[in-house]
Amino acid sequence: MSAETLPFPAIVGQEELKRALLAVGVNEQIDGLLVRGEKGTAKSTAVRALTDLLPEQTVVAACPYGCPPDDPTRQCDSCRERDDYDVETRPVPLVTLPLGATRDRVAGTLSVSDALAGDASFDPGLLARANRGILYVDEVNLLEDHLVDLLLDAAASGVNRVERDGVSVEHPAEFTLIGTMNPEEGDLRPQLRDRFALQATVTGCRSVEDRVTIIDRALDGSHDARNTDGGDTDGVSNEAGLAADQYDDAVATLEQDVRTAHNRLERVTLPTDFKVEIAELCLDAGVEGHRADIAIARTARTLAALDGRTKVIGGDVRDAAELALPHRLRSRPFDDAPDTDDVLDDHFEDESDSGESGDGETGDDADTGDDEPGDGEDSADGETGGDTDASDADGTDSDTGDGDESGAADDDSDGSQRPDRTGSSDDERTAEESEAETAADDDQRGDSPDEDGSSDDEGDGGDEDGNPDEATPLLPGQQRAAVGAADEPPVDDTALRSETPGEGTRATVGESRHGRGSRVRTEPATNTDDIDVPASVRAAASNGRTQIDRSDLRTSVNRGTARTLIVFVVDASASMRPAMRETKGTVMSLLEDAYQQRDEVAFVAVAGDEAEVVLPPTDSVSLAARHLKQLPAGDRTPLPSGLDAAHRLVTRADADSSLVVVVTDGRANVADGSPTAATRSAARHLATSDASVVLVDAGDDGTGLTDILESETGARRISLADLSAERVSEAAASVHDA
Q1: pLDDT of 21-48, one tens digit each?
Q2: Which residue, of 445, 461, 481, is where some domain finishes?
Q3: Residues known to be catalytic
Q4: Which strands, in side-by-side order, build the sheet including 554-559?
Q5: CA-CA-CA-CA torsion for 631, 632, 635, 636, nearest 10 degrees?
Q6: Domain check: are 515 and 655 in the same one?
Q7: Crossing angle of helices 237-265 and 208-226, rounded to 10°
Q8: Where in the sequence does UniProt note compositional bias of the Basic and acidic residues kind (predicted)?
Q9: Mean pLDDT, the chain, whole residue set
Q10: How would you classify the pairing of strands 657-664 and 564-571?
Q11: With 0-12 CB in 10 A as exposed, 13-18 as middle and 19+ as buried, what is 79?
């Protein structure tokens, strides 16, 4: 246990999060977990504490990718070419991906030090270190788009391909992605959100007693850390030491629970009736694709294994759905998602009377039947490589879980990893011990998760690529200090592939040789370009030279960071009620464009005596959409006040460009003095901000002040009657190109 990590059992509350983490720890096919919640709610602490519960894995000694010694299909080229190699054990790695990491740091590149010596060798990146482990991203919603694209490529294929700077290398990159985020700081791209198998939501403790406990444990931990080198303990260190001993015992118990549940997972069956129920639930919920179905099935089996059963019951299915559905209930960031509990209640209410008694009988039978022959069989199946037999039995049985179509492949993948994960055998363990473990586990994580769900379970299922085995991420694990030294993979392509923009990953928008932002790729430098020295050295080395020629000079192409602030000034007065529906549709179209460009938006409501900024600048477009849909209508129109508020927002914002969208019929009737004069003055004032203005004219009789707004601000005017989503998108997109 790291001295800087709060032990898993010491985390107060957050039962849903702990339950989800334990599920990820038990089943490597649950390939991702998204943790959403407020700041300071132990999100990162819990993820790091998970590593103390996970067993070590066997790897090929000195391999930088930690290749499994017993599965050549998941080894790098270097390991496959060896006739013989040593085997060692290591903690399953926990690798943190910093938000400011460069593409080279993540994917790997040509080694500069070796290049200076005239050797072209590959320097593995973070994806190499994370192979067969956890890739952890704190504030994942703030991750740069070009890094998100890189993660999506690797997650989809289980392979990292590097084609740049004269490097042509691919290596295994199977990882479990765990990300944390604060929803108030922005949305997560749907493509990335869909790569998380589960989602857990955390909130701060509302109980005074719990908050006091958190304070005590934090103080005990910090005091104990301060006194590791000696000092006045003031009588507190003994209590901290006792607490640490107590956590050691609890950690050991949980570690054994994870190991036992992992072994039991092979024998957990999912009755066909529950498979049908899962499919119907996902259809009723309106989720896209099949990943939710597979995620629920795998998670239900895992929860049953954690609870000491070998057969899934109805409660497992519901608990799994609470972890796998919520984020899938909306396909666009500005659509209202139905409440997960309402969806589940509607689906399960018809089965509650008959299902409860059936579940109870099943649960009793499973509890008594599993642990008597169970743990001895667990060890025989899980420890000796006999997983294939168990997998076959599991895969051919109609009651087997983990996704029917890919069940056999998934179970084979389970079997190949099982010896790495379980450590010691459970043969000597008795039924009573297993029951005690299950009870202890339940005490630590609660009886069931709360209500949250997450993304994909199919990044490991490989339905798109057709490679269920190769693309299946492995169990996350403990932290690893560094990647071991090994022979570098051959760099066999000396052609400078970086000369093709975007090669090796998805295309990136907003790229510039002189722009700010993260480095995306390199290109041959011209006389006026800044020189990227490391890339130039690598280019020379890849061409077999120890000195840099003019043809080797490279310049960096950076991802542009220019963002547009879009301020919506919406007339919510009574005169706008007939056109409010069309007006909201207009603004929703602009919100969609803002979301695609990852711009910031602000919202000014023009109603009553004074305009109000109901949404300060933010890139959380879903939050903006909710404000729009809840916008009340007033009986007065303080249009000058709304224009002044927009001017303040634009001038205070640190944006490269700004767009003000004014939606009004122009019937201003609130101002100090003449509304016409005040509107003209406010429009002129807004024009001094250099913001582009789009005027959506909702008037139909020409009596409003829209002509003044257009002339004073130079606005692009769009008639509400002729409005189309395409015209609005063009108007908003032109700001990016200006």
Answers
A1: 999 999 988 888 999 888 888 888 888 8
A2: 445
A3: 291
A4: 511-512, 554-559, 519-524
A5: -30
A6: no
A7: 110
A8: 415-432
A9: 70
A10: parallel
A11: buried
Given a contact cutoff of 8 angstroms between Cβ atoms, the answer to whether 3 and 228 are in contact is yes
Q: Is residue 51 part of a domain?
A: yes
CA gap 107, 276 in Å, rounded: 41
> Does 537 lie in the same domain as 440?
no
555 and 569 assigned to the same domain: no
Check if the beta carbon of residue 66 is closer than 8 Å to that of residue 131: yes
Residues 6+ apart with CB under 8 A from 41: 14, 202, 203, 204
Query: In which domain, by residue range, is 526 found?
Result: 497-559
Q: Using the 3D structure, point to which of 173, 192, 208 is the last residue of a domain.
A: 208
Q: How far is CA 324 from CA 300, 308, 341, 477, in A?
A: 10, 21, 12, 22
Both 59 and 200 in a single domain? yes
Total domains in the fold of the chain: 4
Same domain, 550 and 601: no
CA distance 628 to 126: 41
Q: Does one domain contain both 402 and 266?
A: yes
Return the percentage of the chain with pLDDT > 70, whole number. Answer: 57
The strand pair at 612-618 and 657-664 is best described as: unpaired
Predicted confidence at residue 675, as pLDDT, reads 82
Taking a C-beta distance cutoff of 8 angstroms, is the pair 35, 179 a contact?
Answer: yes
User: Does residue 62 belong to any structural domain of this protein?
Assistant: yes
Is 133 a member of any domain?
yes
Please give the Cα distance from 305 to 311 (Å, whole number). Answer: 8
Q: Is residue 35 part of a domain?
A: yes
> Which residue, 501, 617, 512, 528, is CA-closest to 562?
512
Helices (H) then strands (E): counts for the chain: 25, 20
Same domain, 540 and 684: no
> Are 665 and 538 contained in the same domain?
no
642-674, pLDDT tens digit by residue? 999 999 998 887 666 788 888 888 777 777 778
Separation of alpha carbons 683 and 685, rounded Å? 5
> φ, ψ for residue 240 (rounded to 5)?
-65, -40
Query: How far are the Cα atoms of 281, 450, 522, 607, 717 from residue 529, in angstroms, in the given order?
Result: 57, 55, 11, 52, 41
